[in-house]
Design brief:
Shape: globular
Helix content: 40-55%
Oligomer: single chain
Distance between the termini: 66 Å
Number of strands: 6
Number of helices: 8
Radius of gyration: 21 Å
Structural class: alpha/beta
Order of helices and strands: HHHEEHEHEHEHEH
Length: about 200
């Protein structure tokens, strides 16, 4: 019979996204076999993240200061703002090292069926942020699904009358993808987002 503390640990680990019962057991056994300092450091790291990490006052990214590193970095172009759904999306874009502007994190997408409207997102804060007149272009980098497209369309309708250039990230075939295996919607997006060489 498995001891209760181990069962509790497995149950807590299994609540993490993408972690099933077997992976939770492997992680729990790894923690159990590791030196005591490891478990203490892991526990402390979790505690610190919960106590110290919060939303940036400007872009709503994650930070342990009032403003995140992206907002404090004066080398970033404040004229270009990339709007993303989540912090994970921001980090994915940052890994490309292509975008040199600033970010705004919505913390979700419009989804009326799930009760998520504009009031639940950081849209009002985005509009307030645009009031300073520094932003010349907004890049909408929401996911190419129904909710992401609806959110991009909603934002476009709000932002266009403000005289700000609004663009959408291109969508289409991934690098290394085969045309014959792509679905019709992906191929249609790839064709419409084509660019001159």
């Amino acid at each position: 019979m498995t001891p209760d503390p181990l069962n509790r640990l497995v149950a807590q680990l299994a609540k993490l996204p993408g972690i099933g019962e077997k992976t939770a057991q492997r992680l729990a056994f790894h923690i159990l076999r590791a030196p005591g300092e490891y478990a203490q450091e892991l526990s402390q790291a979790i505690r610190e993240v919960k106590e110290k990490v919060h939303l940036c006052a400007r872009c709503f990214s994650l930070t342990d200061s009032e403003l995140c590193g992206f907002c404090r970095d004066h080398r970033r172009d404040e004229r270009t703002l990339c709007v993303v759904e989540t912090f994970a999306d921001l980090m994915a874009l940052e890994r490309t090292r292509e975008f040199k502007g600033r970010y705004h994190v919505l913390h979700g997408v419009l989804s009326p069926l799930d009760g998520v409207g504009p009031e639940q997102l950081r849209i009002k804060e985005l509009l307030t942020r645009l009031g300073d007149g520094h932003v010349e272009e907004i890049i909408l980098a929401t996911n190419p699904d129904v909710e992401g497209e609806a959110t991009a369309l909603y934002l476009t309708r709000l932002l266009k009358p403000m005289g700000i250039r609004v663009s959408r990230i291109a969508q289409g075939l991934p690098m290394g993808g085969d045309l014959e295996y792509a679905d019709q919607a992906t191929l249609a997006k790839a064709l419409s987002a084509r660019r001159e060489l």
